[in-house]
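Box 3.1. Reading complex inputs
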Amino acid sequence: MNQQEKNQYICLLFVLPAVIFFIIFNIYPVIRTFYLSFFKWDGVSIDKQFVGLKNFYFLLFHDKVWWKSLLNGAIFSFFGIFVIDAIGLLLAIIVYNKKYLRNFYTVVYYLPCVISGIVIGLIWKWIFHPEVNLINRIFELLSISSQNISWLDNPRLALFAIILASIWRGIGYPFLIFLAGLQNIPKEVCEAAVIDGVNNIQLYTLIIMPLLRPTIILVSILTVLGGFQTFDVVVAMTFGGPGYATEVPTLKIYKEALQFGELGYACAASLLLGLFLLILSLIQLKFQKTYSS
Amino acid sequence: MRRNYIFLLICIIFFSCKAQRHKEQLTFWHYWNDRNELIHKISDEYCSKTNIPIKIELYSGDIIGHKLLAAAAADNLPDVFSDWSGCYGRGLISYVKSGKIVNLKQYFSKEELEERFDKDVISQIELPEDNMWGVPAGIYYLPLDVNNMLFIYNKNLFRKAGLNPEQPPRDWQEFLDVCRQLKSSNIYPLVLPFGGWVLMAFVKPYIYNHLGINGVQDTAAGKLKYTDERWRNVFMLMKTLVDEKFLFPGSLSFTTPDAERMFVAGKAAITFDGSWAIKVFEQIDKSFTDYGVFFPPKDKNGKYEPLIPGGIGAAVFVANNKNKELSINFVKYLTNFNNQTEYYKFSYNLPPNKKILENLPGTQQMKKFNKYFCKIIPFRYDIENLEEPRVIEALKKNLQLVLLGEKNVDDALIEIQKLKDEYMRDKK
């Protein structure tokens, strides 16, 4: 064995612990989930009943709640991209142009991101509580509506109540990535454009935005993934109710596994959700490549 | 100097690890929010007597069931856990089937059991030879308390509405009349935590009122359809409460603590809660004592007597566990006569040993709860144990949608039946 080969083995040895952890905590659960998705199993019994592709078939062709939860996930993603990301970008631009207190604002906007989703859910549940009625009072002050709206037990409003809580919680993350993206744009490019006579609007639309495109794509992918994986805020605020109004894919999986004792079915749902999100991310990446070229 | 510090540090780490290894400790998971303090107190006393510390972890409400299932799948159950599923629910039976929990028959003689618990309690915890689950006969529960659910009403608000607080409604029609009178006095008649499990508990007395035990069994077996007139009647009863605007706003998303807080604050006159609520009310407001209890009033259109949800709060022991004997000894201590008395005095939960009640009769409300223990739904006839969990979820969700006015009763029942049909086809 020559020195170069020896070095290669030593390098592999250093990487080995990380690889082992990756296999144990990432690869093995996926393989196990795949295996369990072919069984009917409650998670406790010794015997598992092999059912083949039945779990997938039932999920795709008979389970209306699953499709409803995916639709809600899509609504979360839609609002995530068009509201959370848009506000995040706007705040990033404002903070980027601030000379003073930039760090202070960065911390303030990012703060909700570090609070547990359950805590945020409980705070917002309290805000929407019919006795507290904070939101209704704000609406009244702003002359938007003077009605006493019961948000969380109205199927048409409950989802939007959760979206509102998610917006407050979620802005910090895209904001921080956009701010980092803005800071990475070479100052010389902007200065050259200003010398060439572009105004502020042109500077942002023609120079900064195109340069920020990879960051926007990255943030939008993360937002879509996050939207479909919303869980903790929903659990704390409505637990999927009223009816199926705020049912989301991850909550559906959780209920199947731990409430209905259908662990095999939950595994099948997890796999399908994972596959769906993978396809969605690949499409977005393809879109980014096409657009960049 | 630096070397000394390092040596000291190594010594500390070594001895602390060693001490940890030799220490016996029991882990106990429970869901008794209102009794957590008491459980800690009794456990501390036990620890001071035996030198065995008890690590107590509290997981409230539905969470404990989910936590246990995840722990069971990972083979990581605690030494002892508390359970309540109206006795031998689907969940616990899976544990019995897989041999994960201890059959207590070998640890308790018949005499010892009879000394500790009442006969009717023993009959609830004893799984008979030819049980519906086909699992080994035995005792898998050690009861700490018994409980049931009834209507609780605010006497003061009844007075304000011109109602006789000592005469609660005796049938459904009277119940509706009382609600109407309360409403006409600008008092919300009902605050019910329909965002959680209570929705199903609330509707159960009327399911049994209209279908009887046989009707419930037939529905679960697929012989009786959810579209049957009797099921429709049950849904219509519930719908009346919404149509007449009896519910306090937000009830459909409230959890039990929300409704309890609203009820104690006098925001509504009637709620539906368990015997444990007496302690909860006291914790919220000590001065709130002017309330009464009544049995779910029968709808005369139903052929049968209503049955109420109820059961036993008990300790369950994990098998294949080196601490098995220790944990049984701990719960034996927890359920001895003195501690049961202490438990009753502190929590106001009905003791499984009725002799305690002879010496400590408790409040009027407790007496009422105790009186109706004989009316609880037997675990083997509980619809939640007989029916598929997904069908139960569909029943709950569709009922919620009916109450929200999002669906009409017939469409809701058709949807539940569709799901049931799919299961029946699957079974065939």
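In summary: Chain A has a mean pLDDT of 90.
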